[in-house]
């Protein structure tokens, strides 16, 4: 029956690699489980191995794994005489943010001081902003008229 000789924690080479070596005669078929579920090979996760006599050596390769790939990885080797399996923990990245429900409850409990203003102060600030914007528009219109009116005369009486 098959026997798992080595199963190593993930190491970064070109890709992250969970190295393994399996002995068996006849040569066992290999497949992987991730947290107890069958692991499908994709362009991100793939298995590469070579058979040398009765020993299969290889890697379960991960191309830029994320925190979703963290978990328990189990190699299962099976042939006509039996099966063997072994599990190892794979940890690639930490979760980037806390749980979503915790994030929203934190935001609802904490309101920054500069955001908590009463309605009178808020309406006063809005009226100041609108007044400044109106003044800037009037100033731009006056400048445009001045440039068009006085900018047409040629300097020093020269004609173009």
Automatic annotation (TrEMBL):
One of its GO terms (biological process) is cell surface receptor protein tyrosine kinase signaling pathway. This is NTRK3 factor. InterPro entries: Ig-like_dom_sf, Ig-like_fold, Ig_I-set, NTRK3. Residues 21-88 form the Immunoglobulin I-set domain. The lineage of its organism: Eukaryota, Metazoa, Chordata, Craniata, Vertebrata. The chain crosses the membrane at residues 126-147. The gene is Ntrk3_1. Keywords: Membrane, Transmembrane, Transmembrane helix. GO terms for molecular function: neurotrophin receptor activity; transmembrane receptor protein tyrosine kinase activity. One of its GO terms (cellular component) is plasma membrane. It comes from the Eukaryota. It comes from Vidua macroura (Pin-tailed whydah). Coiled coil: none annotated.
């Amino acid at each position: 029956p098959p026997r798992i000789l080595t199963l190593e924690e993930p190491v970064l080479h070109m890709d992250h690699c969970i190295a393994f070596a399996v002995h068996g005669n006849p040569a066992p078929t290999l497949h992987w489980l991730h947290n107890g579920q069958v692991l499908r090979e994709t362009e991100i996760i793939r298995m590469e191995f070579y058979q040398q006599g009765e020993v299969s050596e290889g890697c379960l390769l991960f191309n830029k794994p994320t925190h979703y790939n963290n978990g328990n990885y189990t190699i299962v080797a099976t042939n006509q005489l039996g099966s063997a399996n072994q599990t190892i923990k794979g940890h690639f990245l930490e979760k980037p943010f806390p749980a979503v429900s915790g994030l929203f409850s934190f935001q609802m409990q904490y309101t920054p001081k500069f955001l908590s203003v009463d309605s009178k102060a808020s309406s006063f600030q809005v009226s100041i902003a609108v007044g400044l914007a109106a003044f800037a528009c009037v100033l731009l219109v006056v400048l445009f008229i001045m440039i068009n009116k006085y900018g047409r005369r040629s300097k020093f009486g020269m004609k173009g």
